[in-house]
Design goal:
The chain is α/β, with parallel strands linked by helices. The chain has a single domain (about 10-240), classed as Rossmann fold (3-Layer(aba) Sandwich), CATH 3.40.50.720. It is built from 7 helices and 7 strands. It has a 7-stranded parallel sheet, sandwiched between helices. Helix 1 (about 20-30) packs parallel to helix 2 (about 45-55), helix 3 (about 70-85) packs parallel to helix 4 and helix 4 (about 110-135) packs parallel to helix 5.
Length: about 240
């Protein structure tokens, strides 16, 4: 199926990890014809991903950005639009994991960091990019959910829970202006985000619980996101697409 993405410009946060979902999304969209703007605090990794995008014949730039820093986000978006002329697609993939611990043991600074990166990072990116999408009367935004309120996962779940409710709200705000917003919750994967945060043996346990008996991969995520941001996905707005069961 031709998704009609040729010539679109996609801004993807969290493209630095070479085993992460962000890289999988960048390569999937590039194969569908998108030019890619990748951002990450890991600029070396983001540049490696950009090089792979270029090898596919698409344009790509990498920026070092802390998405929780609004000034850095604004400066990056301004430079990106100056270079590419537009941003059609925004993928808010960047995020951090938090250690699993009892709720009463979670330090306030840990909760604040999770919310600053996982929620305000997406908030900053949308506020910086959406005005340009509104002006062109076209845009596709995918925010990333997660957590789900599991035991001993309160900081991460709180930060992503904020994203869930906020996404439904902005989808209603932006939809009439030509900007389609949806929410995506990937299945657990060995991407680096949960490393050091989840108990030993957790991934093997997840495999046995999952209907497919395997973990989610960057390629799995890339293929789903490519469809979600395409015009083939013509009548879904403010909805959660979940890749684990």
């Amino acid at each position: 199926m031709d998704l009609g993405l040729t010539g679109k410009v996609a801004l993807i946060s969290g493209t630095g990890s070479q085993i992460g979902f962000g890289k999988g999304i960048a390569l999937a969209l590039a194969k569908e014809g998108c030019d890619i703007i990748g951002v990450d605090i890991d600029i070396d990794g983001a540049e490696k991903t950009a090089a792979e995008v270029k090898a596919l014949g698409r344009r790509s730039l990498a920026f070092k950005v802390d998405v929780s820093n609004r000034a850095e986000v604004d400066a990056m978006v301004e430079q990106a639009i100056a270079e590419f002329g537009k941003i059609d697609i925004l993928i808010n993939n960047a995020g951090i994991g938090t250690p699993w611990r009892a709720t009463i043991e979670v330090p306030r600074e840990e909760m604040e960091k999770a919310i600053n990166v996982n929620f305000f990072g997406q908030f900053n990116m949308v506020q910086a990019v959406a005005p340009h999408m509104i002006s062109q009367k076209y845009g596709r935004i995918i925010n990333f959910s997660g957590g789900g309120g599991g035991a001993r996962d309160s900081a991460y779940s709180a930060s992503k829970g904020a994203v869930d409710g906020w996404t439904k709200s902005i989808a209603r705000d932006l939809g009439p202006l030509g900007v389609i917003v949806n929410l995506y919750l990937p299945g657990p994967g060995e991407t680096g985000l949960p490393v050091g945060n989840v108990p030993p043996g957790m991934f093997e346990k997840v495999k046995t619980m999952n209907a497919l008996k395997r973990l989610c991969t960057p390629d799995d995520v890339g293929q789903i996101i490519a469809f979600l941001v395409s015009d083939k996905n013509s009548y879904m707005i403010g909805q959660l697409t979940q890749s684990n069961i």
